[in-house]
Design goal:
The protein is an alpha/beta fold. The chain has helices spanning 18-29, 41-53, 68-82, 95-99, 110-139, 160-180, 217-228, 256-261, and strands at residues 9-13, 33-38, 57-62, 87-90, 142-149, 185-192, 239-242. The chain has a seven-stranded parallel sheet with strand order 3-2-1-4-5-6-7, with helices on both faces. Strand 2 (33-38), helix 2 and strand 3 (57-62) form a beta-alpha-beta unit. The chain starts with 8 loop residues before the first strand and ends with a helix.
Length: 264
Amino acid sequence: MGDRLNGKVALISGSTRGIGRSTAEHFAAEGARVMVAGRTVEKGEKVVARIREAGGEADFVRLDVGDEGSVRAAVEATVERFGALHTLVNNAAPTALVAATVKPLHEYATEEWEAILRGALTGSVFWMSKYAWPHLAEARGASIINVSSGQSLAGFRGFGAYSAAKGAVNSLTRTLAAEGGPAGIRANCLVVGRVVALRGDAGLHAGGGRLTRLGNPMDIAYAATWLASDEAAFVTGSTVTADGGFSVNGDAVGDAEQAAAGQV
């Protein structure tokens, strides 16, 4: 067990699997008290059980970021359970809906567009930050970490709504940082590249002579841990890119199949 996050309480949305799960487990291993939050109760309880078996402290709250009442209740449940809130990780995204809605922008139904923005922006960042804000301000020295995507930086065909939502997340992070400064709230954006589902399944190279490799959830968990820690106390309003170098060596632009194979 480490101590980089000792004394901190973290609420992590979408933490029943993938990046969110790894982040929850690593936060707990570094001393944070963690509220695991997601839609699937069984998966959430398993994550909590793993954290407790490893000697960490965690609990679970059901969270649907598409439901404003659910978001408010999850924040309040965290503060009631642990007595404070220091770190908010806005990780949840409607990945199943995004994967099922791969099409040119002009073919989107308005309902599909709005559902993706609701899940990837309105609920996961606006509502989460809105209801967490007074508790973060009370904590002083608090932190918001918005998990974004490489699709916010390049034009992936077929993912217009998701790319728009994540581009907005990048921009909104800077607003949160500016508004949070007087209250001692830092806000940073973690732009994620292509990440495979299993921790041990990332290849050394992505193929095709690239200078990068595919990532795994722990790569992102390590970056989030640094942003949440006091080591990053002087970092706010920043966009931290964790993509193995894809965005700097010509691999940022790809087609829908490439994007669907990685983090969406």
